[in-house]
Amino acid sequence: MTYLNPKQKLALLSLYSEEIKKRLTPIYYSPETIGLLRELLDLNKFDEICLFSANETEFAENLWNSLVTSPMNSALYDTILSYLHPIDKELHAVLCCITENDSRSNFRLVLSNLDDFWTHLNVESTITFFKKMKCYGPVISRLELGLEGVQDESTKKKLVLRIIPMVGANAVTDLMRSIYDNSEKAAAFVNKLRPDFLRFYKLIDKARDSPRGVITFCPLNMSIEDVLDPSAGSKYEINLNYEDIPCSSVGSDSVMSRLLKSIDRREFEETPILLRDYQKELCESSLLGINTIIAAPTGSGKTVVAAYIIKNHLENLERSDRKPKVLFMTPTTVILDQQAACLKKFLGHRYQVFAAHASDSTPLREIVMEKDIIVSTPQLVVNMLNYTESEDTDLVRTPLDVTTFTLVVIDECHNAVKNSPYTVFMRICHRLNFSHRIKPGSSLPQILGLTASCGVGGASTEKDAINHVVKLCAVLNCQVISTVRKNADEIKRYSPFVSDDIVFCKEENNGSRPLFLERLCTLMRLFEQKFYEIYKNEYAYWSRHSCISGTNQAERPSWIYEKFTIAPEDKTSIPYLNWVSNHRRRFVPETTFYEETSKKKAIEMLEVLHILYRAIELYQDFSTVESYKYLKEQFTPRQAFLTEFSLDLWEGYSKEFEALQSSDNVLVSELV
C-alpha cells in the first residue's frame, strides 16, 4: 500500500467530504453508533454537537468540521475507514484503492498541493484538454455523465480530481499541462512543482508516439475462445501506455470499476441505508430469497428495511446478469407518494423509482417495463394484469404478467384477506404456479410482506386466530414471519409501547360555554318541532320499497326504518346523530308527501339539525369560537336557498352565538 502522510490523507478525505457527511447523518438518531470517531473530539464536544444541531444535515456538517479541525485529525483517515467499512463498502473500497494505486499516477503530488490545484483548476478547459487524448476517452465520458446537471463548481472540481488515479502514469502531468495556460500564477505554480515544465512535458508527450503496446488478457473464469471472439470487441484489451492489468478480472469488484464509480456523483448522492440491529434481524430471511412477512411495530422503520432488501435484491441480480424489477404495493393512494418518496431517498440516485397512478395519461405498461422500482396500488396492477385486448383494436400493448417482477413488496399485507386486491394479485401468482404456465426462463417473484400486526381476523379463540395467520401466510405464499426476538430491548427504545392515560374533566357550569350549548339545543328543538309539524300535516304514506335496490320491508337491515320516531332528548349523543342520519337518508326520502315541496322542507330541517349536531362536536372538543365559525361556514352559502323559517331562526340565533364566543375549553386546558 502506498504511504500517505497526514496532510495527504486529509486532502483525500476532503475530495469525498460530502459523501462522508451523508454517512454520518444516522449518528444523529443513534448517537451510540459514533464509535471510535468520538475519541477524536474534545471532551463533551460530541454532546454539544448533538444538543445544538437542529437536524441531521446540520449535525453531520458540525460533526465533520469538528473532526477535520480536531487536534487528533491525523488519525481521522484510518478512523473514517473503520467507520465506513461495515456501513458502506463501496465508498470504503474507493478510498482504499486510491491509496493502493495512486503511485502510477503520482496522485500524492495532487494531494500534497490540493489547495493550489483547486485554485488554478478550470473544469471546462481541463476536460477539453483531456478529450483530445484518445486514451482518456472512456473515463472522460463517464466524468461528463457525472457532471450532467451539476451547478456547484466545488463539486465539479472534486469529480475532475477524482479521475487522476485511474487514467495512467501521466495523468498528473497532463493535469498540470491543462492548467498551465489558465494564468501566470498557474504557470508559476506548475513550474514550481516541475521546473522547466514545458520542456519536460514535450519529452513525455513524445514518448506517447512509442506506446508500450496493447495486450489481450484472459480472466480465469473464461475461455480463450470467448475472449478472442470479435463480438467481445476491446473488452479484454489493455493499453499498457495508460492502463494496468486488472488485479483480478473485469467485473463489478475490479479496481477500475470502483474508481469509475468514484467519479459518478449519483453513486454517493443517495442516502445510505444504515440498519439498527433489530432491523438487520428482521431482514435476515428475505436476504436469503425466502418469502417473508416482516411484522414489527409502527415507527420501527419497516420501509427502511424494505429499501435495504430491495437494494440487495437489485444488486445481486445485476451481478448475475439478470434483469431485476421490483413492485412495491400500498393498499391505498393516500400513502403511495409517501412510500415512493422514501424509496427515492434511499435508491433514487442509482435506480429509477416510479409512482404509478390510475389517473396517469402515460402508457403505464411501457413505463413499468422501463423502470427499476414501481410503486403502485394493487388494484392498478391487477387491472393491468387482467387486461384483455379487444378484437376491434389495432393497439399493440406491452405484455405484462407477474413474472415481469422479481420482487414484490406488499405494504400493510394484513389486508390480503377475502377478495381484496392483494388477494386477487396473489391468486394470479398461485394459479400460474399451480398450472405450470410460467414461461421458460421466468419465475414467480419473491414476496415480502410488511405489517405492524398480522391480526386475528375477528377470531374469538386462539385456534381461530392461528388459523387466520396461517391463511394469511398461505395467501401471500410466505414461509416465514420475521419478528424481533434477539434485539427486543433495542426495538423498545425506538418503538416503545405507549399506554393510554385517561383523564376525566369536569365541564364548567358558569360562563358563556354552557349558555352557548343551551342555545344550540334550544335551536335544535325548534327545528325538530317544525319537522314534526311538516310530517304530521303533509305525510301521505310511506313506501313499501326500500331505497336499497332489491329489498322489501321485511328485508330491511334495521328496525329504525319501520316507523317514524321522536328525536332523543340528549342532543349531544350518538343516538341523536343516528336519528338525524336515518331520517334524512332513509325514512324521509322513502316517504310520499302530498306536496313535493313538503319533502324538501323536511329534508332541510334534518340537514340543519345535522349541521347543529356537528357544531356541538366542535364545541365539545375545541371552543365556542370554532363551533360558531363552522356554523357560519355552513349557513352562509345556503342562505339563498333556505326557507324563510330556517333563515329567520339562523339570523336571530347567530347574533346570540356571536356574543357567546369564547376560546376556553377544559379539555384543551388539560392537554396544554
Automatic annotation (TrEMBL):
Helicase ATP-binding domain span: 283-472
Keyword field contains Phosphoprotein: no
Source superkingdom: Eukaryota
An MF annotation (GO) of this entry: helicase activity
Spans through the membrane: none
Pfam families for this protein: DEAD
CC per GO annotation: cytoplasm
Keywords: ATP-binding, Helicase, Hydrolase, Nucleotide-binding
Protein name per the record: ATP-dependent RNA helicase dbp2
